[in-house]
Write a structure and sequence with these properties.
Blueprint lengths: L23 H6 L1 H6 L3 H4 L3 H19 L3 H38 L4 E6 L9 E6 L8 E5 L8 E5 L1 E5 L1 H4 L5 E4 L6 E2 L4 E11 L7 H9 L8 H34 L9 E2 L2 E2 L1 H11 L2 H20 L2 E3 L2 H7 L4 E5 H5 L5 E7 L5 H12 L5 H14 L13 E3 L7 E6 L8 E7 H10 L6 H12 L3 E9 L5 E9 L6 H10 L3 E5 L4 H11 L3 E3 L4 H13 L4 E5 L5 H6 L2 E5 L4 H6 L2 E3 L6 H40 L16 H25 L8 H34 L5
Parallel strand pairs: 12-19, 12-21, 19-20, 21-22, 22-23
Antiparallel strand pairs: 1-2, 1-3, 3-8, 4-7, 4-8, 5-6, 5-8, 9-10, 11-23, 13-18, 14-15, 15-16, 16-17, 17-18
Helix pairs in contact: 4-5, 4-9, 5-7, 5-10, 5-23, 8-9, 9-23, 10-22, 10-23, 11-22, 13-14, 16-18, 22-23, 22-24, 23-24
The structure holds adenosine-5'-triphosphate, potassium ion and magnesium ion.
The site of potassium ion has 5 residues, from loops.
GO cellular component, one term: plasma membrane
Protein name: Potassium-transporting ATPase ATP-binding subunit
Catalytic activity: K(+)(out) + ATP + H2O = K(+)(in) + ADP + phosphate + H(+)
Length: 719
């Protein structure tokens, strides 16, 4: 049965809207969404804006009842205030929509070639063609060159080059292979060469692309704890100002009665301050600026991550990234390229090179890790040992590699009078212990060879055998080579300047670890780390009150990725790692964390700066409006009216217009974020307090004055 190769997905042109300045067309395009957001059923989630909307409804009723230019002007601008706030959110959300559209195209319907009763190494498994949507977890499918991978999963057999441009926007093909830490494949991507067998890991309808779509659309964005706390603070401030405005009324009524001679105005009459003015005063005082921009700031932060090919499933993690103290990195595949390849067999104690190669190959026949496969290939190339099918030795029992035992191997039964034989290969310490446990004595020679390889940053794998009736003995060492990714040192230096300590953790021995750590320029390392050691290290750091970020790719990293405050998994990694973390880096670049930290810091700084600005702004407005209002009743207060605004009506109108316009003016800043430069937190804080606090106080004085002059000049109904 053959399946039709589905058409290639459209070359993904990653739809990214630059993080630059706001395009007016974008505002226009987001208008329908902004209007929809006026619905009180959704708006109530933003308490500040909800109050403004209630106020606008109230003044609308008042204006209809008792029409005046002043009343209508205020009413229109109150509605505009809510609309501008909605616009900020809609524009922020709109930026992910184009990208979601591109992703939807990648999520095309495909057919899957499902294998029935598949078992590892099976030569001709039975095949059936099903719709990709019918696939269940643990189904096994085969995908060949030219075909689209029907679902997310792990490669369980074979190696292939895969075009992942549909999700990463990167056109260079990537290698996906079974066994190692590069085994995860994503549904919707296309196999370019060879054939792989994939075990499906996704639940139906919960594919990676589905999750990406809802992420970039902002549908699954949850408010972060800090954001919720700030929202509560804003709601509390709103209530305080509401009470303040209400208690103003008796004072006004009393004053008016007291100053009986003063004529009724639109601002104050025999019933006290008019409803229009009370609502205006309230809106001017409550923190509308930050209330309007808060959600846009959060969405924009997530969006900035997406622009850098990072998918964050938790907003909390994005915030935590801004405060990270310690970064843990896995060595193989994270700091190094990760395709550890066998380059040399180094026999010891008079063992013939061919004998070592033969034993190493036997122990690797069923080893689906890249390391294991490279040993089989090296034995074939250097010693002409044909890669025997593991089926050739039907009675052999293969011992798979685990990060826990740090060994793999084979048990061969005694046959035809020959004694039973067991072969192990793995980390020196682990294999030496196995040798000792089986009656052997590891020689000094092994240690020398192992240390020699380790000192260069290579990974030594000791090969040993145990034949029934004899003590176990080491046969030699396999030299696995790996390469440190380029540019690591500069990036780690940059992290140091940001106050972040980098620690490399590896299952490799301390000597290898030291060599790689020095070459890459990390601050510290932890060697011979089992999964639980990684976890313990993170817990230890966290107990000291530090926020920990971790990048990793392997299944053995999964617990640590889940425990870390920020867990970034490489897209090349295993499904388990990608599930466990709270971010996936589509570029699989471990130093991406620098950018993630910068975005996190920028998010925190932007929110802080705009909150400062918003509150300073409102305090300034207080001093601009109150004197103007009461000057009508107490002419003697005129001295306080330092701004010399034309009339109470024009003062209030100017304040409301200013209040609304400031939202629009700040939308680009909310989306782009306040610039972050590496420096200490306290320096940043004081600088921002100065700029945004003082700026926030000064801006309304200037803005309201200008508006006041313009209003009196151009609007006939207001003097
Ligand atoms: N296929 C294999 N068979 C036998 N031993 C192996 C195999 N692969 C790796 N090892 C040994 O086990 C050790 C631990 O491997 P593991 O993959 O857990 O850690 P690691 O990948 O080196 O660590 P990290 O990825 O955290 O840097 C390796 O250093 C190596 O000595
Ligand atoms: K306000
Ligand atoms: Mg690893």
């Amino acid at each position: 049965m053959t399946a039709v190769a589905p058409p290639a997905p459209p070359a993904a042109e990653p739809a990214r809207i630059g993080g630059g300045l706001l395009d007016p067309r974008q505002l226009w395009k987001s208008l329908p969404d902004a209007l929809r957001k006026l619905n009180p059923a959704t708006l109530w989630r933003n308490p500040v804006m909800f109050i403004v909307e209630l106020g606008a409804l109230f003044t609308t009723a008042l204006s209809i009842q008792d029409s005046s230019t002043f009343a209508w002007l205020i009413t229109v601008w109150l509605w505009l205030t809510v609309l501008f706030a909605n616009l900020a959110e809609a524009v922020a959300e709109g930026r992910g929509k184009a990208q979601a559209a591109t992703l939807r195209r990648a999520r095309q319907e495909t057919v899957a070639r499902r294998l029935v009763d598949w078992a590892p190494g099976q030569s001709a498994p039975r095949e059936e063609t099903v719709d990709a949507v019918m696939l269940r977890q643990n189904d096994v499918v085969v995908v060949e060159a030219g075909q689209v991978i029907p679902g997310d999963g792990d490669v369980v057999e074979g190696v292939a080059s895969v075009d992942e441009s549909a999700i990463t926007g990167e056109s260079a093909p990537v290698i996906r292979e079974s066994g190692g830490d590069r085994s995860a494949v994503t549904g919707g991507t296309r196999v370019l060469s060879d054939r792989i067998v994939v075990k499906i890991t996704q639940k139906p309808g919960e594919s990676f692309i589905d999750r990406m779509i809802s992420l970039v659309e902002g549908a699954s964005r949850q408010k972060t704890p800090n954001e919720i706390a700030l929202n509560i603070l804003l709601a509390a401030l709103t209530i305080i100002f509401l009470l303040a405005v209400i208690t103003l009324q008796p004072v006004a009524i009393f004053s008016k009665a007291f100053q009986g001679a003063a004529p009724d105005t639109l601002v104050i009459d025999e019933h006290g301050v008019t409803g229009i003015v009370l609502v205006s005063l309230l809106v001017a005082l409550i923190p509308t600026t930050i209330g309007a921009l808060l959600s846009a700031i959060g969405i924009a932060g997530m969006d900035r991550l997406v622009q850098r090919n990072v998918l964050a499933t938790s907003g909390r993690a994005v915030e935590a990234a801004g405060d990270v103290n310690t970064l843990l990195l896995d060595k193989t595949g994270t700091i190094t390229l990760g395709n550890r390849q066998a380059t040399q067999f180094l026999p010891i104690g008079g063992v013939a090179p061919g004998e070592l190669a033969d034993a190493a190959q036997l122990s690797s026949l069923a080893d689906q890790t890249p390391e294991g496969r490279s040993i089989v290939v090296l034995a074939k190339n250097e010693h002409g040992l044909r890669a025997r099918d593991e089926g050739v030795i039907p009675s052999a029992e293969f011992v798979p590699f685990t990060a826990e035992t740090r060994m793999s191997g084979v048990d061969l039964p005694g046959e035809g009078g020959a004694p039973a034989r067991r072969i192990r290969k793995g980390a020196a310490a682990a294999v030496m212990r196995w040798v000792r446990e089986n009656g052997g004595h590891p020689t000094e020679e092994v240690g020398g060879v192992v240390d020699g390889i380790s000192a260069t940053g290579g990974t030594p794998l000791v090969v040993a055998e145990h034949t029934d009736g004899q003590p176990a003995r080491a046969l030699g060492v396999v030299h696995l080579k790996d390469v440190v990714k380029s540019g690591m040192r500069e990036r780690f230096d940059a992290m140091r300047r940001m106050g972040i300590r980098t620690i490399m953790i590896t299952g490799d021995n301390p000597l290898t670890a030291r060599a790689i750590a020095e070459e890459a320029g990390v601050d510290d390392f932890l060697a011979e780390a089992k999964p639980e050691d990684k976890l313990a290290l993170i817990r230890h750091e966290q107990e000291g009150g530090r926020l920990v970020a971790m990048t990793g790719d392997g299944t053995n990293d999964a617990p640590a990725l889940a425990q870390a405050d920020v867990g970034v998994s490489m897209n090349t990694g295993t499904s388990a790692a990608k599930e466990a973390g709270n971010m996936v880096d589509l570029d699989s670049d471990p130093t991406k964390l620098i950018e993630i930290v910068e975005i996190g810091k920028q998010l925190l700084i932007t929110r802080g700066a705009l909150t400062t600005f918003s509150i300073a702004n409102d305090i300034a407005k207080y001093f601009a409006i109150i004197p103007a209002m009461f000057a009508a009743v107490y002419p003697s207060l005129d001295g306080l009216n330092i701004m010399r605004l034309s009339s109470p009506e024009s003062a209030i109108t100017s304040a409301i217009i200013f209040n609304a316009l400031v939202i629009v003016v700040l939308i680009p800043l909310a989306l782009r974020g306040v610039r972050y430069r590496p420096s200490s937190a306290s320096a940043l804080l004081s600088r921002n307090l100065l700029v945004y606090g003082l700026g926030g106080i000064a801006a309304p004085f200037a803005g309201i004055k200008v508006l006041d002059i313009a209003i009196v000049q151009f609007i006939p109904g207001i003097s």
